Amino acid sequence: MTNSLNKSIDRALVLWDKNVKHEDFICLKIIPFPKSCCCFYCWPKVWNVINEMIKPQGQIQDEGDVLLKVDDEEYVLECHESGPEIILLATASITLLTAIINLISCLLNHLQKERKKPKEVSIVKKQITQQQEKVVCKFDLENKAFTLETISKKLEKAFEIENK
Ligand SMILES: [Zn+2]
């Protein structure tokens, strides 16, 4: 885990303008099950809608990454074939977390509409200081009852638990 995590953080640090240690970061990874490719060609609707959302701040390209700002805080969104990753500081405020929850909710909501829709998605949290990655929450994409709101609620609940 540590190697791929260090690589993801290195990618984010290219865009980050501050002196931050690898230990200061959290990586949230969105992992489909069964494992499948998450690139622009496999998830066209998802990446399209994400680019619409982040338009004022920048655009992400296939296999690329983008720095996004929320007030004075920053986070990085990375496109990996193995799953999108969000790199943020462990000290992130509720405001930043809320913005990230909105982004993930929107992503999952549109993922349900993709032709290559996975059965399930896990949100996994990784940190250099933690030996093991932790599953923050899981979503069953076959469940048609999922709306943008129910996804957000589930994520909010999961992140509140994380913050305690
Ligand atoms: Zn692909």
Account of the protein in words:
- Helix content is 36%, strand content 24%.
- The protein is an alpha+beta fold and 164 residues long.
- The protein has one domain (2-163).
- Strands 2-3-4-1-5-6 form a six-stranded antiparallel beta sheet, sandwiched between helices.
- Helix 2 packs antiparallel against helix 3 (94-111).
- The structure holds zinc ion (ZN).
- Residues 37, 39, 41-42, 81 line the site of zinc ion.
- Residues 37, 39, 41-42, 81 line the site of zinc ion (ZN).
Structural class: alpha+beta
What shape does the CA trace take? Answer: globular
Task: Specify the number of helices.
Answer: 4
Counting DSSP E segments of at least 2 residues, the number of strands comes to 6
For the largest beta-sheet, the strand count, sense and barrel status come to:
6 strands, antiparallel
| Structural Rg | 15 Å
Give the total of domains: 1
Low-confidence stretches: none
